[in-house]
């Protein structure tokens, strides 16, 4: 089966000042569902296309299944790729679209029939085999494209934003389908998306990229709970993590996060991470960004039950309310910083109300202002 190794891989496009992919170094285990996520232009497609052989590697090595692959032509890599735009042949039937790749490889006719009908069954498109692409919905076309990849029985599946052209409901449905297919096949999947929800729900491991560089590689929950920098923290999670600028101050009774409006005690457990940030340093060296997820900013009714966190209460005015059905996002202003908290759907507050916020200081993240690196993970192996 197929593991994939990237060794310090770079891609320089001619005439571009910066590399599109910068020192991509990663091993994808056999059978893993690896998701690459990041904003548009961060180098996801380029990385995937180098793995597929559709783009030359400028520097570094790629191995598939232990074999040095940089110069192997795409058709000899034994991988199947699924694109956003389906790329089906309009004049061929669904059956022919799925069978074509196998026929070109001279697979025996009965074997082709077997594989196509098996894949069609898996994707629930058996009733569409005689139709042409033009007669199919977007979701059905993408299933055919998936089917065409499945019949190849490749060492690895590469998918580049395959769900982007589908509407929200179909996207969620097809997402679940792909997860199911992966768990049945146990083949290596490398999946590219700009959508953090897709990344979180599909990946066994996620690579977050920015400007051609890997920011963090981790299982979804770890990425969410322990982002290694502010970029990852802001990219993963919806609504986004709240960020407040301030400095670290050390007092006799411990470390505090402070700015002109706030003075918040930091948990004792954080002390060892903050040792270098003592009072003697100039303010500029102690500048940080405090990060707190919306579910860790408790609002009013919720807040009242949270007695143990009483010392971290602040009064704020409700600026906006976003009812989501399952819960409500409350927007407030905390000393000049917009804060979002995830509150109960039925919370009885109105715009303009003064409410109490409880900041779960036991859940805060701290990032160095300048570099964005997490202070709490500093020195930890990522
Ligand atoms: N063929 C190309 N020639 C020059 N620059 C390219 C080419 N393809 C992509 N790029 C650039 O490389 C960077 C990464 O692009 P891409 O891999 O497509 O990002 P993503 O898939 O994450 O949106 C972008 O800055 C993009 O403009
Ligand atoms: Mg892309």
Automatic annotation (TrEMBL):
Q: Which domain of life does the protein's organism represent?
A: Bacteria
Q: Which GO terms describe its cellular component?
A: ATP-binding cassette (ABC) transporter complex, substrate-binding subunit-containing
Task: List residues of the ABC transporter domain.
Answer: 4-236
Q: Which UniProt keywords apply?
A: ATP-binding, Nucleotide-binding, Transport
Gene Ontology annotations of biological process type:
carbohydrate transport
Can you name one GO molecular function term for this protein?
ATP hydrolysis activity
Q: Name one Pfam family in it.
A: OB_MalK
Which CDD domains is this protein grouped with? Answer: ABC_MalK_N (cd03301)
The answer to whether the entry has keyword Ribonucleoprotein is no
Tagged with keyword Transport: yes
What is the name of the protein in this document?
A: ABC transporter domain-containing protein
Question: Which organism is this protein's natural source?
Answer: Paenibacillus agaridevorans
């Amino acid at each position: 089966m197929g593991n994939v190794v990237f060794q310090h891989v770079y891609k320089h496009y001619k005439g571009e000042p910066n590399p599109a992919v910068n020192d991509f170094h990663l091993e994808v285990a056999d059978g893993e569902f690896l998701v690459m996520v990041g904003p548009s232009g961060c180098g996801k497609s380029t990385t995937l296309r180098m793995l597929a052989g559709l783009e030359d590697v400028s520097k570094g090595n790629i191995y598939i299944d232990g074999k040095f692959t940089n110069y192997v032509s795409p058709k000899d890599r034994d991988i199947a790729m699924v694109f956003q735009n389906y790329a089906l042949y309009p004049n061929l039937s669904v059956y022919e679209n799925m069978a074509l790749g196998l026929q070109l490889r001279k697979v025996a006719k009965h074997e082709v029939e077997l594989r196509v009908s098996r894949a069609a069954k898996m994707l629930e498109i058996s009733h569409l085999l005689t139709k042409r692409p033009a007669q199919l919905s977007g979701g059905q076309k993408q299933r055919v494209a998936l089917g065409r990849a499945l019949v190849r029985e490749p060492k690895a599946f590469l998918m580049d934003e395959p769900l982007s052209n589908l509407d929200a409901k179909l996207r969620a449905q097809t997402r679940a389908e792909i997860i199911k297919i992966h768990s049945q096949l146990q083949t290596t999947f490398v999946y590219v998306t700009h959508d953090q929800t897709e990344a979180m729900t599909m990946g066994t491991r996620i690579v977050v990229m920015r400007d051609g560089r890997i920011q963090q590689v981790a299982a979804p929950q770890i990425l969410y709970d322990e982002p290694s920098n502010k970029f990852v923290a802001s990219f993963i999670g919806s609504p986004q993590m709240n960020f407040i600028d301030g400095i670290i101050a050390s007092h006799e009774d411990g470390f505090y996060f402070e700015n002109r409006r706030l003075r918040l005690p930091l948990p004792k457990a954080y002390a060892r991470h903050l040792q270098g940030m003592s009072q003697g340093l100039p303010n500029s060296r102690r500048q940080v960004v405090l990060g707190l997820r919306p579910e860790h900013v408790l609002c009013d009714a919720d807040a009242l039950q949270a007695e143990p966190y009483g010392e971290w209460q602040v009064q704020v005015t409700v600026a906006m309310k976003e009812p989501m059905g399952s819960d409500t996002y409350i927007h407030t202003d905390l000393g000049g910083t917009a804060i979002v908290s995830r509150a109960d759907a039925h919370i009885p507050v109105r715009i303009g109300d003064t409410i109490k916020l409880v900041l779960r200081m036991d859940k805060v993240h701290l990032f160095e202002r300048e570099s964005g690196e997490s202070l709490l993970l500093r020195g930890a192996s990522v």
